[in-house]
Design a protein that fits this description.
single chain, 304 residues, Spore Coat Polysaccharide Biosynthesis Protein SpsA, Chain A, 2 domains, nine-stranded mixed sheet, 9 strands, Nucleotide-diphossugar_trans
Length: 304
C-alpha cells in the first residue's frame, strides 16, 4: 500500500485543492497522512472541515502539533506512524497529477529491487505558466557513473531534486535513518543519503522525468526565493555529510554560486549575510569559484 504524506503549514489557501487531487489517485487502500506544524492561519479548520465533507472512505489521518517544530520534525512524526510499504511525499500547496502517480506506483511496486522512483515535476508559476523542473543538467547527473555521481552530489549537484514526485520504499527511508533532525534542508539531505546508499540507476532507483507527477507551486513564501536561507541550508548539509577530502571545495563552490546569484539579483543583503556566515577559507576559495561561474556564463552568452 501507499501512504501520501502532506506536511501542512500556513497553506490554508491551497491545501483543499491539494487534498482533492490526492484523494482522486486511484490506488486501493491508500492512506493520506497530514501533519499540521502549528499553523498560524486557519489551515487546521480548513483541513478538518475538508475531511468531514470529503473523506468518505476514511483515508485521511490528521495530526495537529502543539508547537511549530519545522518540516523535518513533521516528517519524522509521520515516519514513526506510517505502516505502508511505500511513501509518496507532498507539500500542502502543490498539485499531484493522479494518473501519473498511479503509473509511478505501478512501476515501483512491480520491481522489488527498486528503492525509490523519481518522477517528473513542473514548476507552477504565479501567472499559471508551467515549466519543467528537471532539465539537461539533471539528465547528465543521473546518467553519471556511481563514483562520478557521488562526487557531484557534493560538488555540483543539480538543484532542485524534489521529494514531491518521488515514491520511496519505507525500508529505504529507515535504512538512511529517516530525516536528520539537525538539518533544515530535508530534500537535499534525504537524496544525498539515498543516492549514497542506493546509487545504481536502473537497479536501486529510476529517474523518470517524463512522468510528470506534481506541479510545484511557486509563490513568495517558497524557500527557494530566499538566497541566504538556501545557502545556509545547503552548507549545513555539506558541513555534516561531505567527505573530508572534498568538504572545503564543496562549501566554497556553494559560496561562489550563491554569492554570484546575490550579485546578479542585486540582493546585497543576501551577499552580506553569505559573507558574514563564511570563514576566510570559504570566502577565498569561494570567490575563485564565483568568478569562474560568472566568466562561464558570459562565455556561454557570447557563443549563442
Amino acid at each position: 500500500m501507499l501512504t501520501i504524506f502532506v506536511p501542512s503549514y500556513n497553506h490554508a489557501k491551497y491545501i483543499t485543492k491539494t487534498l482533492n487531487k490526492i484523494l482522486s489517485i486511484n490506488i486501493p487502500n491508500k492512506r493520506v497522512y497530514v501533519v499540521d506544524d502549528f499553523s498560524s492561519d486557519d489551515s487546521v479548520e480548513v483541513v478538518r472541515n475538508y475531511i468531514k465533507q470529503n473523506d468518505t472512505r476514511n483515508e485521511i489521518d490528521f495530526v495537529c502539533k502543539e508547537e511549530n517544530k519545522g518540516v523535518v520534525d513533521s516528517l519524522n512524526v509521520f515516519l514513526e506512524k506510517c505502516t505502508t510499504d511505500y511513501i509518496y511525499l507532498m507539500s500542502s500547496d502543490d498539485i499531484v497529477v493522479p494518473e501519473n502517480v498511479l503509473e509511478l506506483f505501478g512501476i515501483i511496486s512491480s520491481e522489488p529491487k527498486l528503492k525509490y522512483v523519481i518522477g517528473g515535476a513542473n514548476n507552477l508559476i504565479l501567472d499559471g505558466r508551467e515549466t519543467p523542473v528537471y532539465k539537461k543538467q539533471h539528465d547528465l547527473f543521473f546518467g553519471l557513473s556511481e563514483t562520478d555521481r557521488f562526487n557531484e552530489l557534493y560538488l555540483n549537484s543539480p538543484s532542485p531534486i524534489l521529494s514531491q514526485g518521488t515514491i520511496i520504499r519505507k525500508e529505504a527511508l529507515i535504512a538512511i535513518g529517516g530525516w536528520d533532525s539537525d538539518i533544515i534542508a530535508d530534500d537535499y539531505s534525504m537524496f544525498l543519503r539515498l543516492l549514497s546508499l542506493y546509487p545504481r540507476n536502473g537497479h536501486d532507483f529510476l529517474f523518470l522525468p517524463d512522468i510528470i507527477c506534481v506541479k510545484y507551486r511557486h509563490h513568495d513564501t517558497n524557500s527557494y526565493t530566499k538566497t541566504l536561507r538556501q545557502f545556509l541550508m545547503t552548507t549545513q548539509v555539506l558541513r555534516k555529510y561531505a567527505p573530508k577530502n572534498i568538504k572545503n571545495e564543496a562549501i566554497a563552490r556553494k559560496f561562489g554560486y550563491y554569492l554570484a546569484v546575490s550579485i546578479r539579483d542585486l540582493n546585497f543583503s543576501a551577499a552580506k549575510g553569505i559573507l558574514g556566515a563564511s570563514n576566510f577559507n570559504d570566502i577565498a576559495l569561494g570567490l575563485y569559484y564565483s568568478v569562474l561561474l560568472i566568466l562561464k556564463r558570459l562565455v556561454n552568452k557570447c557563443t549563442r
